[in-house]
């Protein structure tokens, strides 16, 4: 639809759908139907799991890659697909918290991941739409410009080749930017699908729709079980499922939290100058070009918030649409989608043994929206650790690290937030009956005087669920933007029928018959 540039009428698509998944859907794999013995069992088929499976099968190892849903349908299929070491404002903070040497290691690990992806993409069909681009962090406020100045000094301390610009090549006003040359953007599903074909060709096993139970039989040869009772015996278990499917007394639910962010594929009414941009100011705004159906579009992302918390969640898409109108102009919007990311207490990923007492159960999580390079770096590190090779990055991201500042402060704040939402949810009751909902409307209702959640689909079918999250008992909230139930405590998400979309919960919400 072509929009009058002066119109304020929303042209948002009604439903979420990722352009990446729509234009290059992942291959579908059947569930595991029989017991299996492998060297490495990898749980979670996003960028980390797929890259690791690719690396291990390429060296002749027997690998099973398992996912509770269709492979690659999680965060990897919903990224902005910027391949860059410019991870928002981070290097100043890393230097302050960990010192120059550790901050430099973070940069190097991500730089190596970028180079690995560049080489790999060049070998895959169509080069995965790989395009070299500059990355920019830009500021529109005095505060943002001050933060950029500090970040610039951090780049210089670390020897990162950066350029400071007062004249920012954006078609809207910005005070200042930091430019990193030699970064890239690509089609993430073209890349991932290419790796999947290589895993299969090398004899790797891939299973979709295979949920792994939360318990692992630990030992020299750990055993995983699927919800259907099939057993996978292996030498090493690797959890690359964002939230670790097995906690193993690692207390991950106290150490990571999830955030959601939003993306629109906008056909602008003005010319986009190229480059990958991210604002230093809040609310965050991310921009990059993409070609859809031969036409130039811009992916506009941002409006991050903690999962299950905040205002009516379809409003986030409207905020991005408003930003697009004010900056580039909007002819049409082809896609909208959202993504979930995990953040650790100190913002560095957790990659390595699940706890200090585990030697054959491994985890990779906490990529803080920068999963393209962080997820690839995690796979490269795990490959080396699993095969007993030296790698300089293990200590930096080991999940067993503990640093009092900022870890302890954040630990207290995060867990106070969980407690607040646990209590708040229990006190909130619905004021309506389920059948008072309109078509395509969901929300908290009362059933027999008790809190419940209901959604009435466009055909008038009613789906009522118990809103108590099956993870640790917080009350889930209705996400109008995605028609899902989202938990404000640790980020589990359920579809309107109550089926699990994202963990840590592994069991569906209880259905209520009305
Ligand atoms: Fe932990 Fe819901 S995700 S209580």
Write up what this structure looks like.
- By secondary structure, the chain is an alpha+beta fold.
- Among the domains are: 31-78 and 189-254 and 347-402, FAD/NAD(P)-binding domain (3-Layer(bba) Sandwich); 427-502, 3-layer Sandwich (Rieske Iron-sulfur Protein), CATH 2.102.10.
- Helix content is 27%, strand content 28%.
- It is built from ten helices and 26 strands.
- The strands form five sheets. Strands 4, 5, 6, 7, 13, 14, 15, 16 and 17 form a nine-stranded mixed β-sheet that branches. A six-stranded mixed β-sheet has the order 8-3-2-12-19-18, covered by helices on one side.
- Helix 2 (47-58) runs parallel beside helix 6 and helix 3 (91-98) packs across helix 4 (100-123).
- The longest helix has 24 residues, at 100-123.
- The chain starts with 18 loop residues before the first helix and ends in a 12-residue tail after the last strand.
Features:
alpha+beta; 10 helices; binds FE2/S2 (inorganic) cluster; Rieske Iron-sulfur Protein; six-stranded mixed β-sheet; FAD/NAD(P)-binding domain; about 525 residues
In short:
Residues 425-514 form the Rieske domain. By secondary structure, the protein is of the alpha+beta class.
List the helices and strands and how they pair.
Layout: H1 19-23, E1 36-37, E2 40-43, H2 47-58, E3 63-66, E4 82-83, H3 91-98, H4 100-123, E5 131-139, H5 142-158, E6 163-165, E7 176-185, H6 188-201, E8 205-207, E9 212-217, E10 223-226, E11 231-233, E12 236-239, E13 256-268, E14 276-279, E15 285-292, E16 295-306, H7 315-327, E17 330-344, E18 350-353, E19 361-365, H8 371-386, H9 394-397, H10 404-427, E20 441-447, E21 450-456, E22 462-465, E23 477-479, E24 484-486, E25 493-495, E26 500-502
Parallel strand pairs: 1-11, 2-3, 2-12, 3-8, 5-14, 12-19
Antiparallel strand pairs: 4-7, 5-7, 6-7, 9-10, 10-11, 13-16, 13-17, 14-15, 15-16, 18-19, 20-21, 21-22, 23-24, 24-25, 25-26
This protein binds FE2/S2 (inorganic) cluster.
């Amino acid at each position: 639809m072509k929009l009058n540039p002066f119109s304020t009428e929303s042209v948002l698509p009604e439903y979420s759908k990722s352009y990446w998944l729509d234009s290059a859907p992942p291959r579908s794999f059947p569930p595991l139907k029989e017991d299996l013995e492998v060297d490495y069992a990898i749980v979670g088929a996003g960028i980390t799991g797929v890259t690791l499976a690719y690396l291990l099968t390429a060296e002749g190892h027997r690998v099973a890659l398992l996912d509770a849903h269709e492979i690659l349908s999680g965060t990897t299929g919903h990224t902005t697909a910027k391949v860059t070491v410019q991870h928002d404002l981070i290097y100043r903070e890393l230097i302050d918290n960990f010192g120059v040497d550790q901050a430099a290691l973070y940069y190097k690990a991500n730089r190596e991941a970028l180079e690995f992806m560049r080489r790999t993409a060049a070998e895959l069909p169509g080069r995965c739409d790989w395009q070299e681009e500059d990355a920019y962090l830009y500021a529109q406020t005095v505060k943002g410009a001050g933060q950029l100045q500090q970040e610039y000094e951090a780049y210089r301390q670390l020897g990162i080749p950066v350029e400071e610009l007062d004249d920012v090549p954006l078609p809207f006003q910005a005070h200042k930017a930091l430019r990193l040359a030699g970064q890239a953007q690509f089609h993430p599903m073209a890349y991932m699908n290419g790796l999947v074909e290589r895993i299969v060709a090398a004899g790797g096993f891939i299973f979709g729709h295979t949920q792994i139970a939360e318990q692992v039989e630990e030992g020299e040869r750990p055993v995983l079980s699927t919800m259907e009772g099939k057993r996978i015996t292996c030498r090493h278990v690797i959890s690359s499922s964002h939230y670790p499917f097995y906690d193993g007394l690692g207390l991950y639910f106290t150490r990571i939290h999830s955030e959601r962010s939003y993306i629109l594929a906008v056909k602008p009414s003005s010319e986009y100058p190229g480059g990958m941009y991210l604002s230093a100011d809040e609310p965050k705004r991310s921009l990059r070009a993409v070609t859809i159906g031969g036409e130039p579009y811009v992916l506009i992302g941002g409006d991050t918030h903690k999962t299950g918390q905040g205002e009516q969640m379809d409003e986030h898409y409207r905020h991005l649409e408003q930003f697009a109108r004010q900056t580039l102009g909007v002819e049409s919007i082809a896609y909208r989608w959202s993504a979930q990311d995990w953040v650790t207490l100190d913002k560095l990923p957790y990659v390595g043994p699940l706890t200090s007492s585990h030697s054959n159960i491994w985890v990779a999580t906490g990529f803080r929206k920068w999963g393209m390079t962080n997820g690839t770096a995690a796979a490269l590190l795990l490959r080396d650790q699993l095969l007993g090779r030296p790698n300089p990055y293990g200590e930096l991201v080991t999940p067993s690290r503990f640093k009092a500042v900022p870890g302890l402060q954040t630990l207290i704040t995060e867990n106070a937030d969980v407690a607040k939402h646990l209590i708040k949810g229990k006190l909130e009751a619905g004021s309506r009956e389920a059948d008072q909902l309109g078509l395509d409307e969901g929300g908290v209702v009362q059933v027999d005087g008790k809190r419940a959640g209901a959604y009435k689909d466009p055909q008038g079918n009613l789906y009522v669920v118990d809103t108590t999250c099956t993870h640790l008992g917080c009350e889930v909230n209705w996400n109008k933007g995605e028609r899902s139930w989202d938990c404000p405590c640790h980020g589990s998400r359920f579809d309107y029928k109550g089926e699990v979309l994202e963990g840590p919960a592994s069991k569906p919400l209880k259905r209520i018959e009305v």
